[in-house]
């Protein structure tokens, strides 16, 4: 089979690449290969009743499939250059913002109308943070919610399904140079294309490394974020979430001068399992529909670790910590903050007697046996700092789930068009190491699609 453009990965980068290519040139023959299922077949078997923990499916319904790892996320699109990636370093700050706004318009058109756009501009919360040694990053935040995000993806798929050839449950094994184009190999077939866009997300990090080795594409070591997911009564953070919904707050610890940040805040949300390369970690979701709200708010506290020579395997470091959690707890571990600071493990009795009802069935345990001391000390410091602006954060019954790990790809060497040294081969989204968010990944897809359409 011969295509004009093959896209590897049906996450936000791949979806918006296809959307823009179809819009700009209806004559292009386009295929998308995805290791996971189509949207309607993405069903996690964990039901809280018969199946209470991860059973390690061959393809994780949460991480893989149409929509990528963001399909069942909180559906937050952050319009900012202050976090979410370094796309602006390649294409310019204003163009990056304009593309994110364009993605926002498409999301509204395809089912997101009526959802709220939050902003940190002119907020008293920023001043309150600064007065307490915290820094609130600037952003506009479109919150779709897990439910509306699903509707948007469903509508985008319906728009594309008759214009693009989709190959689900078809992982790509190799991408090889083929004359002036590329050969895309699956377990059973080979496909040719003139242009290839790789958009495999964070879960495709190991595979991406093999592609770079095969095609001699330079990479450089990136980082890994390690931390916990905090769950507490929604009222404690209501001042923050009612006005901003998602607040990215950064704190520099006194002890080690490490940066600790909040990430993926889910007001009235639920804590969930996540499976990355067979390792069970923790994440969080929330819904736009009030009937699906819980009494709790959850968010991650993460510490970024950058490594220097000779160590290069930042993801391997994060995986080893997550495996230790899986070894001790059979999956995710949960601990009361009061137990952690007293140096004792939580048990089922202490969890059940607390004032915070867990939204995830995790194993009570001791996070100090899993998370390195320097990282854990920073998280504890951050909790006490947040307690100054949101009193109650450091309550004994606040729950900490571990571990939460955000894996990043090795950063792929790309030019200003997000094109590798192999002409016609583009790497976008979180799989490139350039973006770390839904909005940036989607914007990178639009950007590359426009460049390809203009030059084919």
Overview of this structure, please?
The protein has 456 residues and is α+β, with helices and mostly antiparallel strands. It has helices spanning 12-24, 88-91, 93-112, 124-131, 145-160, 205-214, 238-244, 314-329, 337-342, 348-353, 373-389, 438-455, and strands spanning 2-8, 30-33, 76-79, 117-119, 134-136, 140-143, 165-167, 172-178, 181-186, 190-198, 219-220, 223-233, 249-252, 259-266, 270-276, 279-285, 296-306, 333-336, 363-364, 399-407, 411-412, 425-427. The strands form five sheets. An eight-stranded mixed sheet has the order 5-13-14-17-12-20-18-19. Strands 1, 2, 7, 8, 9, 10 and 22 form a seven-stranded mixed sheet that branches. A hairpin with a 2-residue loop joins β8 (172-178) and β9 (181-186). The protein is globular.
């Amino acid at each position: 089979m011969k295509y004009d453009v093959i896209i590897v990965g049906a996450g936000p980068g791949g979806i918006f690449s296809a959307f823009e290519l179809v819009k700009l040139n209806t004559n292009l023959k386009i295929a998308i290969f995805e290791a996971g299922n189509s949207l309607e077949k993405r069903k996690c078997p964990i039901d809280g009743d018969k199946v209470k923990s991860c059973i390690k499916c061959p393809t994780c319904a949460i991480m893989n499939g149409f929509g990528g790892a963001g399909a069942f996320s909180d559906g937050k699109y952050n319009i900012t250059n202050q976090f979410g990636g370094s796309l602006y370093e390649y294409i310019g700050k204003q163009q990056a913002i304009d593309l994110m706004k364009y993605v926002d318009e498409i999301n509204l058109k395809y089912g997101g109308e009526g959802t709220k756009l939050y902003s940190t501009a002119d907020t008293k919360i920023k001043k309150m943070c600064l007065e307490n040694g915290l820094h609130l990053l600037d952003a506009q935040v479109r919150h779709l919610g897990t439910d509306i995000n699903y509707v948007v993806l469903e509508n985008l798929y319906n728009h594309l399904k008759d214009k693009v050839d989709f190959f689900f449950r078809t992982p790509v094994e190799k991408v090889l140079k083929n004359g002036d184009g590329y050969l895309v190999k699956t377990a059973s077939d080979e496909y040719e294309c003139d242009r290839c866009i790789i958009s495999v997300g964070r879960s495709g990090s190991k595979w991406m490394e093999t592609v770079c080795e095969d095609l001699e594409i330079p990479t450089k070591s990136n980082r890994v974020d390690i931390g916990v997911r905090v769950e507490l009564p929604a009222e404690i953070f209501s001042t923050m979430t009612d006005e901003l919904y998602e607040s990215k707050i950064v704190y520099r610890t006194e002890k080690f001068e490490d940066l600790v940040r909040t990430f993926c805040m889910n007001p009235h949300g639920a804590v969930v399992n996540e499976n990355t390369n067979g390792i069970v970690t923790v994440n969080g979701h929330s819904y736009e529909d009030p009937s699906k709200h819980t009494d709790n708010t959850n968010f991650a506290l993460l510490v970024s670790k950058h490594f220097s020579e000779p160590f290069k395997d930042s993801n391997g470091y994060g995986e080893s910590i997550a495996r230790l959690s899986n070894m001790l707890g059979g999956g995710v571990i949960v601990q009361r903050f009061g137990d952690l600071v007293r140096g004792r493990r939580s048990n089922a009795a202490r969890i059940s007697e607390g004032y915070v009802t867990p939204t995830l069935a995790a194993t009570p345990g001791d996070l100090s046996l899993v998370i390195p001391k320097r990282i854990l000390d920073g998280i504890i410091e951050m909790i006490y700092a947040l307690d100054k602006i949101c009193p109650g954060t450091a309550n004994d019954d606040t729950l900490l789930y571990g571990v939460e790990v955000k894996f990043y790809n090795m950063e792929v060497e790309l030019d200003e068009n997000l094109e590798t040294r192999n002409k016609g081969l583009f790497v976008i989204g979180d799989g490139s190491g350039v973006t770390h968010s839904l909005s940036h990944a989607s914007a990178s897809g639009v950007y590359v699609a426009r460049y390809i359409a203009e030059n084919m």
